[in-house]
Amino acid sequence: MSLTGNGHVIVGVVDQGTEKVQHYVACIEAAGGRAEVLGWRGGRDPFRDAEAFDAYVLCGGDDIDAAHFREPNHPRVTLDDPRRDAYEIAFCRRAAVLGVPLLAVCRGAQVLNVALGGTLVQHIPDLPGAGRHDGGVRHTLRLAADSHLVRLRGASQESLAVNSYHHQAVGRVAPALRSTAWSEDGCIEAVEGPGPFLVGVQWHPERDGNDGALGADLFGALLDAVRISA
């Protein structure tokens, strides 16, 4: 635990390699925390990083190599840097063992699921009856009654809308996780695991377009989990 003397929670933000990481940093700071961007290109040790901060955020980005869940890549994938895949998978496994609070966003939720033994739907439009999930379109969610998400201030099991910028989704859920939110077409939109706060969401809470507490308030919930467990 590295809470500073004035109560700031120190959050490690795994770099997505673009200036978009600053949106996550801004949300953490607005919620009263401090952020340090973890640059995986610099040869950082993911195991040491997973032990160094109070909480963590995994950002969005391009697609993870399907070789990590023993499938060939779909023709429509856009692969991220393999160094990022390797760092984030190792990081997630260690963070899950340690039980540190973690918010995983979009690609981050997918990496979390793969790291812990799950698979992905590699191209949602291939699914019968699938709706749109790309381009920032908003769609409604159904939340599990016993989830972190439904317990957040302002959240309920009623229809809540979120933004959507993805063409992949969680497929088979990892044994250590459970699905806790679904879009109207049945796609898994959130997973959660044991510990004070292990949450992966498919939408982007750092962007506009989310109802209730499913936007930037998620960063506040991450910080609250640290303070409660301190």
Description:
By secondary structure, this protein is of the alpha/beta class. It has one domain: Rossmann fold, CATH 3.40.50.880. The protein is 25% helix and 20% strand. It has 6 helices and 11 strands. It has helices at residues 21-30, 46-49, 82-98, 107-115, 148-151, 217-229; strands at 10-14, 34-38, 55-58, 102-105, 120-121, 139-143, 160-162, 169-170, 178-183, 188-193, 198-201. The strands form 2 sheets. It has a 9-stranded mixed beta sheet, with helices on both faces. A two-stranded antiparallel sheet has the order 5-8. The chain is globular, with a radius of gyration of 16 Å. The model has no long low-confidence stretch (mean pLDDT 93).
Topology:
Layout: E1 10-14, H1 21-30, E2 34-38, H2 46-49, E3 55-58, H3 82-98, E4 102-105, H4 107-115, E5 120-121, E6 139-143, H5 148-151, E7 160-162, E8 169-170, E9 178-183, E10 188-193, E11 198-201, H6 217-229
Parallel strand pairs: 1-2, 1-3, 3-4, 4-11
Antiparallel strand pairs: 5-8, 6-7, 6-9, 9-10, 10-11
Helix pairs in contact: 3-4
Q: Name the beta content range.
A: 15-25%
Distance between the termini: 7 Å
Helical content class: 10-25%
Structural class: alpha/beta
Instruction: Give average pLDDT, whole number.
Output: 93
Q: What fold name goes in the CATH topology slot?
A: Rossmann fold
CA-based gyration radius: 16 Å
Instruction: Kindly report the name of the CATH homologous superfamily.
Output: Class I glutamine amidotransferase (GATase) domain
Low-confidence stretches: none
Query: How can the largest sheet be summarized?
Result: 9 strands, mixed
Going by CATH, the architecture would be: 3-Layer(aba) Sandwich
Number of domains: 1
**H/E element order:** EHEHEHEHEEHEEEEEH
Tell me the name of the CATH class.
Alpha Beta
Overall form: globular
- In DSSP terms, counting alpha (H) and pi (I) runs of 4 or more, how many helices? 6
Strand order of the largest sheet: 2-1-3-4-11-10-9-6-7
Number of strands: 11
Oligomer: single chain
